[in-house]
Amino acid sequence: MATTTTKTIFSGAFALLLGLAANMALAAEGENFVDEASTKGIAEIETAKIALDKGTSEDVRQFAQMMIDDHTQANQQLAQLAQEKDLEMSDEATLMDKAKVMILKWRDGENFDQAYSNNQVVAHEQTIKLYRQYLESGENPDLKQYAETTLPKLEQHLQHAKELQAKHGAND
User: Fold this and answer.
1) What HEC string does the chain produce?
2) pLDDT at 125
3) pTM summary value
4) CB–CB of 147/135 below 8 Å?
5) pLDDT tens profile 45-76
6) How far, in Å, CA of 96 to CA of 102, rounded?
7) What mean pLDDT is reported for the chain?
8) Cα angle value 135/30/71 (rounded, 5°)
9) What angle do CA 29, 148, 82 make, to 5 degrees?
10) At a CB cut-off of 8 Å and minimum separation 6, what does 158 contact?
11) Per-residue pLDDT tens for 145-154?
12) Which of 13, 42, 101, 108 is the most exposed place for a label (fewest CB within 10 A)?
């Protein structure tokens, strides 16, 4: 009888550990998406702020303002989800410095509007890939819903960025 009770306790404990491990894996997977998505959103906002200051074409400056507005809103929604799910988001101060360094690299040998347009195409392609991957393999239904509702706006941004890139001369 003691053996059966011991086996039951061990089985229950093992099941509990497996459940905890699965929940931790789910949280880690969700935290990775939240961290990467927020990183990309913050980088978009910070580079757009620089584009508002340094952009010479009105269409580039309008696009930059749209990036600030849309990505601020998306990051606020993501932050709310992260808080509800007890997931961490990226550190804004660190990303601001990285974004400024990237802008300086983009300006090397080309005008700002061209550099910003080129970067926006690449940045949005990478962000869209991240969101699509999460939609395919992500586990958290709330984060998947966020990715699904945000993806069309990101695709619009990519299309607009490609139009800017074509107008301002892509660097091949």
Assistant:
1) CHHHHHHHHHHHHHHHHHHHHHHHHHHHHHHHHHHHHHHHHHHHHHHHHHHHHHCCCHHHHHHHHHHHHHHHHHHHHHHHHHHHHCCCCCCHHHHHHHHHHHHHHHCCCCCHHHHHHHHHHHHHHHHHHHHHHHHHHCCCHHHHHHHHHHHHHHHHHHHHHHHHHHHHCCCC
2) 96
3) 0.76
4) yes
5) 988 988 888 888 999 999 999 999 999 999 99
6) 10
7) 79
8) 70
9) 45
10) 121, 124, 125, 128
11) 999 999 999 9
12) 108
Structure tokens at 135: 């939609």
Average pLDDT over residues 97-122: 73
pLDDT band for position 120 (cuts 50, 70, 90): very high
Report the distance separating Cα 138 and Cα 115, nearest Å: 33
